[in-house]
Amino acid sequence: SLPLSQTITLPTGQTYEQPVGLFINGEFVKSQQHKTFEVLNPSTEEEICHVYEAREDDVNLAVDAAHKAFHSEWSKCDPAIRGKYLNNLADLMEANKDTLAAIESMDNGKALSMAQGDVGLVINYLRYCAGYADKLYGKLVDTGSNYFNYVKREPIGVCGQIIPWNFPLLMWSWKIGPALAAGNTVVLKTAESTPLSALYAAKLVKEAGIPNGVVNIVSGFGKITGEAISMHPKIKKLAFTGSTATGKHIMKAAADSNLKKVTLELGGKSPNIVFNDADVKKAVQNLIVGIFYNSGEVCCAGSRVFIQEGIYDEVLEEFKKAAEHLKVGDPFEDGVFQGAQTSQQQLSKILSYVESGKTEGATLVAGGERLGNKGYFVKPTIFADVTPKMKIYSEEIFGPFAVVTKFKTADEAIEMANDSEYGLAAGIHTKSLDTATYVANKLEAGTVWVNTYNDFHSNMPFGGFKQSGIGREMGEAAFENYTQWKTVRIAV
Ligand code: NAD
């Protein structure tokens, strides 16, 4: 059967050892049924390697290890020690940052510069969580002199975590960082198309000295490995990032099995609104970052662009020019902004929406076709004259695909922006503080960016209104997801 590690040559020419086993109880192991699956490089469509696939029996082993680690030491130790381990992990990530970024770029298809940005965010966030570990304070509550009352935060237990393929390592850190800081242990499933950076990071978990069983990583598919996690009776909490359809399915499984606490970070169709008084150059840059960053595979992508009528022609023209100017191609080539889509399915999905846009009568302004015939590359695509009845206006495409609509007044923009089942993020571009605050207050979105876009900070919570999710990641809010309050009343 397949060895547990393989020597891989990165597109940079560097070789490294890639773990390909499941990471269970501090060791890389073969899956019990010795099943494996292929991992492809989406830029070349060539095989990178095979990794072991976890089935229900493997998930059971991982959960048992996590359960034991939770009860034996991790949940009970001085939280400062958990912080120290997370800092060790962040230091190791920093020492390995070039390798991690190259693995991510090869596996996901994103431009190397984007992957380098992701790894920077991962390191910052792990350090943020490390600092939080010993600052999860409780409260003393005065209810009169006959009682001594306190409330304290306790960890929840074994957490199941299921992540997508668009930001494999960043989502790994958003899930593992706060869970561990708060004293939980985890069984995390990566997305089937992008398992590699998480396994490499598991090697660093071991090197960081994090006790066996605290972190378990299982590669595999949604229907088998994912279901085994969401149905498992010993898992007490489930955190998921991915599509709204799968999120709903997972929530049902969590409820039917043992009423796991659930956090969901789901899809979006986020509005990015440009007002007449915007700084055109800056606004166009933010439209570009909004929809073409990470090849458009971003849950909060600014995919619906609204431009006010007085500035419409100018902004659309500049947006088109900037999109056509973007360097698309080999993620490892200097200056490339947009790499490959992560899979053949994503490429086909995007191209089918191009056909849908044309059929429904929208105007194709830029792109709209595959680039080359090897690798899943798509030209940055813009459709204008898009109306709310069109599919491309309301459905999440998850690619470098913007739809543009004209508006007259701020209230009209707000109404159109909010006319969506989603509510993850929104952008506003204006020089007026009055306009910015008026619109920001009325938008139904978990994050509103003004004169910026796709701009994250470890200390700022992120999550969705409406069908974009439940709960928040990052910031203080993340720890709400990974702790439960206990009330203690002592009669004196
Ligand atoms: P998905 O939501 O099905 O997959 C995300 C993760 O969930 C993967 O790890 C997958 O293996 C797992 N999963 C799938 N079915 C499961 C199940 N029944 N039980 C447990 N886990 C399960 O997304 P996808 O099919 O890879 O992509 C489809 C669309 O979803 C994309 O085109 C995009 O629109 C959207 N998407 C959104 C995000 C986001 O961050 N919001 C991320 C990925 C995909």
UniProtKB/TrEMBL annotation:
SUPFAM superfamilies given in the database record: ALDH-like (SSF53720)
Keyword line: NAD, Oxidoreductase
InterPro entries from the UniProt entry: Ald_DH/histidinol_DH, Ald_DH_C, Ald_DH_CS_CYS, Ald_DH_CS_GLU, Ald_DH_N, Aldehyde_DH_dom
GO CC annotation, single: mitochondrion
Taxonomy, superkingdom: Eukaryota
BP GO annotations: acetate biosynthetic process
Active site: E265
Pathway: Alcohol metabolism; ethanol degradation; acetate from ethanol: step 2/2
Gene Ontology molecular function terms on file: aldehyde dehydrogenase (NAD+) activity
Residue stretches making up the Aldehyde dehydrogenase domain: 28-488
Function statement: Minor mitochondrial aldehyde dehydrogenase isoform. Plays a role in regulation or biosynthesis of electron transport chain components. Involved in the biosynthesis of acetate during anaerobic growth on glucose.
Family, similarity comment: Belongs to the aldehyde dehydrogenase family.
Protein name as catalogued: Aldehyde dehydrogenase 5, mitochondrial
